[in-house]
Specification:
The chain is an alpha/beta fold and 276 residues long. Helix content is 49%, strand content 12%. It has helices spanning 2-5, 30-55, 75-81, 101-104, 110-113, 131-138, 144-163, 177-189, 200-205, 208-221, 237-255, 266-274, and strands at 62-69, 91-95, 122-126, 166-174, 229-233. Strands 2-3-1-4-5 form a 5-stranded parallel β-sheet, with helices on both faces.
């Protein structure tokens, strides 16, 4: 899936050329997708445990899943359904909202660096440092010359993460305009989901073309070998969950973490324990 979903490097990105309902590889219907996702659970949990165990012997490696996408694209749903396959004690989840007054007094990457996973952990960002080149561009929150520099800062930052043992998995959840309308209407029609609805979401939809362009620029300028982008069709929730689970599995398998050997005499400890 890494090769199938990876955004091409060095090419102009046109998001309208990608089908948000596509199933480019893997299961092709919901029942098969749900079963396939569940089947990945034990292997993902095993690899997570190995990664955490290896950190106790000094292994600095960890994984950072970055989730970006339009409103209702499924960032929270991914956290619930995909990260739910892992042991929560080994995960560090952070949802980034509008910067606080304290955060605005620091460089834009300051709050990101404070939320990074520790060795052995799996970190999940629901939104991320990319908000500072997405909403900042659409809403003209910073001068364009400053905005242009941020792409380079992000690339250098992500390269430094990779050099420090962080496997960065950046996922753009590709949602269609029509599906977003359907999901917002579902929230309006169900009183139990009114808490998830914000009237401002309707205003944001009017800016859809501007957000699409901002994403296209971010995908183009921040597509690197150290931290590539993966485009996941997100109209079908079950496929989104399977694809991201598969991506995480492939990255963890590439790390191939192992349990560290004990630094004690096993037989001597066994004899002592049996004597008690």
């Amino acid at each position: 899936m890494r090769e199938v979903l990876r955004v091409p490097e060095g090419e102009r990105i046109d998001l309208t050329a990608y089908d948000a309902r596509a199933t480019p590889a893997g299961p092709t219907d919901k029942a098969a997708g749900l079963a396939a996702t569940a089947a990945l659970g034990p292997r993902l949990a095993d690899l997570q445990e190995r990664l955490y165990a290896s950190s106790t012997a000094g292994d600095r490696r960890r994984v950072l899943l970055v989730l970006q996408g339009m409103d209702t694209s499924g960032k929270g749903g991914t956290v619930k359904h995909v990260i739910g396959l892992f042991n929560p004690s080994g995960c560090r989840i952070r949802a980034f909202k509008a910067p606080t007054p304290e955060e605005r007094n620091h460089p834009f990457l300051w709050r990101i660096m404070r939320a990074l996973p520790q060795p052995g952990e799996i970190g999940i960002f629901d939104r991320s440092h990319y908000e500072d080149v997405l909403i900042a561009r659409v809403r003209d929150l910073v001068p364009r010359r400053m905005l242009g520099r941020r792409y380079g800062q992000i690339n250098r930052f992500e390269k430094s993460l990779a050099e420090d043992g962080v496997t960065v998995v950046k996922v753009f959840l590709h949602l269609s305009y029509e599906e977003q309308r359907a999901r917002l209407l579902e929230r309006l029609d169900n009183p139990d989901k009114h808490w998830k609805f914000n009237p401002g979401d309707i205003e944001e939809r009017a800016l859809w073309p501007a957000y699409r362009q901002a994403y296209e620029i971010a995908l183009e300028r921040c597509m690197t070998d150290e931290a590539p982008w993966y485009l996941v069709p997100a109209d079908r929730k079950w496929y989104r969950n399977w694809a991201i689970s598969k991506l995480l599995l492939e990255h963890l398998e590439a790390l191939d973490p192992t349990y560290p050997p004990g630094d004690f005499d096993v037989e001597e400890c066994r004899a002592r324990l049996l004597a008690t």
